[in-house]
Amino acid sequence: MNWPTRPLRLVVGFGGGSSPDFVARVLAEPLAKALGQPVIVENRPGASGNIAADVVAKSTDRHTVGILINGNMTIAKVLNPSISYDPQKDLMPLSIICTAPLVLAAAPEVVKTDARGFLDAARAAGSQWSYGTPGIGTIGHLGMELLKARTGIGAVHVPYQGNPQVITGLASGQLQLALLPPGLAEPQVKAGKLRAIGVTSARRSALVPDYPSLQEAGLKGFELEIWTAAAAPASLPPPIARRLNEVLAEIIRSPQVQQKLFQHGYEAVGISGEALVHRVKADTAALAQIIASQGIKLE
């Protein structure tokens, strides 16, 4: 198989400094070494990552791979029927690269108490509080809406271009809370710029072991995970897809890559494309239920 014959393009739906951008850049060098061609990271931010996903879905050059988040591969079409790609028809899942719970983070001046007390204060504040996300339909958005439904919190949604901008909004007091990836939240918490309330995993996470789970605060059954995956156009020939899956699996298994991802707040996974297909279907059903129950629509 005479492939690749030119540089490989990794398309990312968020800007520099975002978690998907970091993941792409961790993969770029070992991918280039394994494939014998340069690997170029191309940032195409906007529409909660769906602009990049659309670029990938429509690519015909056989040398384009998307580094995408949950929403781009699951509920993009559920949330916005008018988007020009269908995740389950136009994208070929290659591998989940890494996963993490989310950290419920708060602005530093917000009432200082335990997680249960914080949720009580957020409930009492009603619509006077606001929360930030990297866009409508992202896991940070759907997770907060699920949290609101489960707790009676009335915080108002404020979408940003990406999580780095959300963190700036929290640190400056423009926002009161947000759900953030651990790798972005922890350095800000250590620097005193943010407060960590808890994590969305079923129990404490090895990524941030000092943070309580929200289940410890009484939110039984509240569990949410973000993942970053590699996907190709559905038109990619199966032999090339198999080669990419094999190469990605080997890279993700390497201790160096696993350590870099862990230090950034992610646990390496590297599951097969077939397993990712099943994960996409299951997550689509679960997230679509949140969208329907909360009446979430594009603004």
How is this structure best described in words?
- With 299 residues, the chain is α/β, with parallel strands linked by helices.
- It has 2 domains: 8-99 and 226-294, Bordetella uptake gene, domain 1 (D-Maltodextrin-Binding Protein, domain 2, 3-Layer(aba) Sandwich), CATH 3.40.190.150; 103-217, Periplasmic binding protein-like II (D-Maltodextrin-Binding Protein, domain 2), CATH 3.40.190.10.
- 42% of the residues lie in helices and 20% in strands.
- It contains 12 helices and 11 strands.
- The strands form 3 sheets. A 6-stranded mixed beta sheet has the order 2-1-3-10-4-11, sandwiched between helices. A 3-stranded antiparallel beta sheet has the order 8-5-9.
- The longest helix has 22 residues, at 273-294.
- It is globular.
- 48% of the residues are buried.
- The mean pLDDT is 92.
- Belongs to the UPF0065 (bug) family.
- This is Tripartite tricarboxylate transporter substrate binding protein.
- It holds the Pfam family TctC.
- InterPro entries: BUG, Bug_dom1.
